[in-house]
Design brief:
Elements: H1 27-41, E1 46-52, H2 58-71, E2 75-80, H3 92-104, H4 106-113, H5 117-120, H6 139-155, E3 161-166, H7 173-185, E4 191-198, H8 208-216, E5 221-225, H9 231-242, H10 248-258, H11 262-273, H12 285-294, H13 298-310, E6 314-315, H14 316-323, H15 327-339, E7 343-345, E8 351-354, H16 357-365, H17 369-385, H18 392-405, H19 409-425, H20 429-443, H21 448-452, H22 476-489, H23 493-508, H24 514-530, H25 537-547, H26 554-570, H27 574-589, H28 593-609, H29 613-630, H30 633-649, H31 653-669, H32 673-690, H33 693-704, H34 711-727, H35 731-745, H36 752-768, H37 772-785, H38 792-808, H39 813-816, H40 819-832, H41 838-854, H42 860-871, H43 876-893, H44 897-914, H45 917-929, H46 956-966, H47 971-978, H48 982-996, H49 1001-1010
Parallel strand pairs: 1-4, 1-5, 2-3, 3-4
Antiparallel strand pairs: 6-8, 7-8
Helix pairs in contact: 1-2, 3-4, 4-6, 7-8, 9-11, 10-11, 11-12, 12-16, 13-15, 13-16, 17-18, 18-19, 19-20, 20-22, 22-23, 23-24, 24-25, 24-26, 25-26, 26-27, 26-28, 27-28, 28-29, 28-30, 29-30, 30-31, 30-32, 31-32, 32-33, 32-34, 33-34, 34-35, 34-36, 35-36, 36-37, 36-38, 37-38, 37-40, 38-40, 38-41, ...
């Protein structure tokens, strides 16, 4: 074990100087950190990842940086990831750092946390008891993350804060997820976040590796890698340690053996200074790290071994109780270990930790198996006898770890289950899952009498354990249910599905229990949909069969809610409505109010789709008020999502904006990140309808930059941006947004509320680009698929865009083929679409007028009717387009030029205000063709004089050429027909393109047909 003790003098209680007092090298890395601090001080949050192999000097660099930061007036908070056996404490570095900030900034901390102490207590238990237990939801963790980020931003609003999170290679999954969220969403405040990790530990399957790859893609995150010291830097380090110039031979030996690793340099010097000749140093790295340990007195070595198994930091009182030494002897042993730079006092002064984790690992690895388990047993027994020796928030996890490594399954299983409950209360679902899996591993090793004494530990949402007789023993199925929910909530959906399949195999065997089986099938339905492996209906149908004929229960209500929710999204018809009504009835009967409120929101949404808008809206408003009264904020936010969406579907966009704005305020105040995203997406859609286009763009872009993980909400935001870009004449931008939205929505589970908006946007983008074949393809697909109830909000704009494209292409030879089928598809869609609100009746009139235009039978009367319908609504863009067509029809019929001019002026003003460049151009071209006064002139301004040639300066010969261009003739064919040379025909075509301001023959032909340049004056 290590070098021969006889060859090395004992260090005793004399402090060994093995750390250089001079900071060596790292100029570039320190500059990067200090520059980040400077930018943070100016209000630009900074995030840095500091990586390097074990012992390379990360901690020393951080110490130098934080010293300079404090000197510059910054508040510094450090937190380290904890390795206790194989278990990291959830959120350990964040909890430690927040504790330090609260200690240093008590009043600002209290102000920043005001009103959210109950939720933040899950991160920092000193703030009080966590708020009441709500049914688990995917939003719970995101809510905690959002509140934590907001707390940090609040603390950094008026001062510079440096947050250092060390040893990410030990980070638990919850800590990794919170760090990723922090780096993605930190947007304001004078804060610098520095996270360190041991690069040589990050093997290909290490859980930190995907996080590092994700963070590398963020432009706001900078990665700093520490290299080993050069020979010159090792020379400077040795000089600082020895306080003298090192001997050349020693420098050569140390540099060669350490390979520039700063910590190994220190250990080699310590070994040399303790009396070991350079040539006698062990070739084993572990033995090298143990040299100083073995030079300690026996009592000190014993204390060091005890500390090695206690965790990253061991409280003094706990250490004293486990060591069993007289206090004077313990202090003397600790003094020796601290003096030898093996142990350090913890920053809070309440315990001890190893100066470097490599030494702790070496000491732990050197223990005999029986010795290790005996130490863990002593820790566990001591902590059970005297629980106050450690903080309450770490007690359960520490006790579970100690008993597990003591290899006492009967004592470990109850401790592990208690720890799993504590982690769930903190929304650390990944750690809860790991503990539950450990419980399942121990299950068969535990005697029957111990298992019989266990009781249900927590309630997996509506799982039948809820409400059981308290004397009912815990079953293995109960563990599987808890583990399935924990896996789903932690994002490990494949693992959750595997757990559900295991449970269902058990239930298909000896343990027949239809209620529990129905619960697991309902979970499987949700997981299949989330994993993109199906729509979940077979699993829901199986669950419905299992509960049929059973007495009402919470599971029964959950199954019905699942069926109603499935129908609301995919087939909102009578069956879904009936399922929602039964779900409300069953949940009310069994007094499961949270399930009832969920069902009532679904029922209200389905009622709106079924043609009872007032009843449906009232049901959702009532559910919203009740959820707020009960503090069921997740369901309250869902009510805002569905209410704002339903109001928009009814054309009541102004009300939708009001509801969405209130919903965002509620969701943000409660940290409901995903709900905020859904509501913001709905808000963007309503703002687009109201003509508040700049606000629409702002909300959509804010959503995309908010760190929302739900791809569907991002897809909806991208579609609003695609519509906006189309209307503003930015086809490439629109196509890019559309392509990205298609990726976000996916294709595995086609849901009408996603597929139809995609088709609507794709049709609009294709029509704007003049891709008539693609427009027809999209329309035909929509006509064949149909429009389920409630989807008219997407169907009418889709059909209007398609029929407008057909009308614009009328007379073009290239558009003739396929035209009858396209117009037939338009008629089929019109017959299938409902008009449950004035806005859709107005769309129906516009479609009818465009269809008449496409067939050459347009009349001003049709457009007058459509314009009157839109004038009663807040739809400025649609009204401006209809007014443009109405004016066109008036000019074509003749005699009402002043009325047409007024319509064009109004349409032009709207187009200018919105930035709708294509519409503005069309209006201006029509006014120019009709020789009307400039549209931005006063109404009584006289019309422009008529030129000798036709509008746009086309001569009679150029009009002849344009007619042939529109008919699809080539230059040679034009020359033959007009008896001119091909070169002259080419010159005429070039002149025509220049006068019309178009880029090609196709655009010239389309413009000629659109403005009737070939049919005589429209006046």
């Amino acid at each position: 074990m290590g070098a021969d003790k006889d060859a090395c003098a004992m260090l005793g209680a004399v402090e060994t100087r093995s750390v250089s007092p001079v900071f060596v090298g790292r100029a570039g890395e320190l500059t990067a950190l200090t520059e980040a601090l400077s930018r943070a001080g100016a209000g630009e949050p900074q995030a840095l990842l500091l990586g390097g192999e074990a012992g390379v000097g990360k901690t020393r660099l951080v110490e130098e940086f934080t010293t300079r930061a404090r000197a510059a007036g910054a508040v510094v908070a450090l937190g380290g990831c904890v390795e206790i056996g194989a278990d990291g404490l959830p959120f350990a570095p964040f909890s430690t750092a927040l504790r330090a900030l609260r200690r240093e900034l008590p009043e600002p901390f209290a102000a920043a946390a005001a009103g959210q102490e109950g939720e933040l207590a899950r991160m920092l238990p000193e703030l009080g008891d966590p708020t009441g237990h709500e049914p688990a939801a995917e939003e719970a963790t995101a809510r905690l993350f959002e509140l934590t980020v907001r707390l940090l931003e609040g603390l950094a609003a008026d001062r510079t804060v440096v947050l250092v999170l060390e040893d990410l290679h030990w980070a638990d999954a919850s800590t990794r997820h919170l760090l990723a969220y922090l780096f993605r969403t930190l947007a304001r405040g004078r804060i610098t976040v520095v996270a360190t990790y041991r690069a040589d530990d990050i093997h290909r399957r290490h859980p930190l590796r995907p996080l590092l790859a994700e963070l590398d893609r963020l432009r706001s995150v900078r990665r700093v890698e520490l290299a080993r010291f050069t020979r010159a830097e090792v020379h400077r380090q040795l000089t600082g340690i020895l306080a003298a110039e090192p001997e050349p031979a020693l420098l050569d030996e140390v540099f060669t053996r350490s390979e520039g690793n700063a910590f190994f340099v220190e250990e080699l010097v310590a070994s040399h200074e303790s009396g070991c000749a350079a040539g006698s140093l062990s070739d084993s790295l572990r033995d090298l790290l143990l040299v100083r340990v073995e030079a300690l007195p026996e009592a000190a070595q014993r204390v060091v071994r005890i500390v090695a198994e206690g965790g990253s930091t061991v409280e003094y009182d706990l250490l004293a109780a486990v060591a069993g030494l007289p206090e004077d002897a313990l202090i003397e042993a600790l003094r020796a270990a601290v003096g030898a730079n093996i142990l350090l006092a913890a920053p809070d002064g309440e315990g001890y930790r190893f100066r470097h984790s490599l030494v702790r690992e070496a000491v732990s690895d050197d223990l005999l198996p029986g010795e290790r388990s005996r130490l863990h047993r002593r820790y566990a027994e001591t902590l059970e006898e005297r629980p106050g020796l450690v903080r309450a928030d770490v007690r359960a996890t520490r006790l579970a770890t100690y008993w597990y490594h003591a290899r006492d399954a009967a004592r470990a299983l109850p401790a592990v289950l208690r720890a799993s409950v504590e982690t769930r209360k903190r929304y650390a679902y990944a750690e809860q899952l790991r503990l539950l899996e450990r419980a399942m591993e121990l299950w068969d090793e535990v005697p029957d009498e111990v298992r019989a004494a266990l009781r249900p530990i927590d309630y997996a949402e509506s799982y039948p354990a809820c409400g059981c007789d308290p004397e009912t023993p815990l079953r293995h199925l109960d563990l599987l249910a808890e583990a399935a929910v924990a896996a789903r909530l932690s994002g490990e959906r494949e693992r959750a599905a595997k757990i559900c399949r295991t449970a269902l195999r058990i239930l298909d065997g000896d343990e027949h229990d239809p209620l529990r089986a129905a619960w697991f099938w309902t979970e499987m339905a949700r997981l299949q949909s989330n994993l993109g492996k199906g729509d979940g209906w077979p699993e829901i149908a199986r669950a419905q069969e299992l509960v049929k004929g059973l007495p009402p229960s919470a599971v029964h209500a959950t199954v019905l809610v699942g069926a109603a929710g499935w129908g609301m999204l995919r087939n909102p018809g009578p069956e879904a409505l009936a399922a929602a009504e039964r779900a409300v009835e069953y949940a009310r009967f069994v007094e499961a109010e949270p399930i009832e409120l969920n069902a009532r929101i679904t029922l209200g949404t389905l009622m709106v789709s079924a043609g009872d808008p007032e009843g449906g809206l009232a049901a959702m408003h009532e559910a919203r008020e009740r959820t707020l009264a009960l503090g069921q904020f997740h369901e309250a936010a869902r009510a805002h999502v569905n209410l704002s969406s339903s109001l928009e579907a009814l054309g009541r966009s102004r009300e939708a904006v009001d509801i969405a704005t209130a919903g965002i305020e509620l969701a943000r105040s409660r940290g409901l990140v995903e709900a905020t995203g859904w509501i913001r997406a709905n808000l963007a859609e309503s703002l687009l309808s109201l003509g508040a286009w700049d606000r629409c763009k702002e909300q959509a872009e804010r959503l995309l930059g908010s760190g929302v993980s739900n791809s569907k909400t991002c897809g909806t935001a991208l579609l609003q941006l695609a519509h906006l870009a189309t209307a503003r004449g930015e086809p490439d931008t629109a196509a890019g947004h559309l392509a990205e939205a298609r990726v976000r929505y996916g294709t595995r589970d086609p849901i009408p509320q996603y597929t139809l908006p995609m088709t609507q946007a794709a049709t609009a983008v294709a029509a704007a680009a003049g891709h008539l074949a693609e427009v027809r393809e999209q329309l035909a697909a929509a006509a064949d698929t149909g429009f389920p109830p409630g989807t008219h909000r997407y169907g009418w704009p889709l059909v209007l865009a398609a029929v407008t494209a057909e009308a614009d292409a009328r007379g073009l030879p290239a558009a003739a083929d396929g035209r009858p089928a396209a117009l037939d598809a338009v008629r089929r869609c019109v017959r299938a679409l409902a008009t449950p609100a004035p806005v859709w009746q107005a769309h129906s009139l516009a479609v009818s007028a465009e269809l008449a235009r496409a067939e050459g039978r347009a009349t001003a009367e049709r457009w007058a009717e459509a314009a009157a319908a839109f004038e009663a609504l807040e739809r400025p863009y649609e009204l401006a387009r209809v007014r443009h067509r109405y004016a066109d029809a008036l000019l074509a019929e003749g005699g009402r030029r002043e009325e047409a001019a007024a319509l064009l002026r109004a349409a032009h003003a709207t187009a200018v205000r919105l930035g709708a460049h294509p519409l503005r151009e069309d209006v201006e071209l029509l006014a120019a063709r009709a020789r009307l006064a400039p549209l931005d002139a006063a109404p009584d301004t006289p019309a422009r004089p008529e030129p000798e040639d036709d509008a746009f300066g086309l001569t009679p010969r150029e009009q002849d050429v344009l007619r042939l261009v529109a008919a699809g003739r080539t230059n040679r064919q034009i020359a033959e027909e007009l008896f001119i040379s091909p070169k002259t025909a080419s010159v005429h075509v070039s002149n025509i393109l220049a006068k019309l301001g178009v880029a090609g023959r196709g655009e010239a032909a389309a413009l000629a047909h659109r403005l009737r340049l070939l049919d005589g004056s429209p006046a």
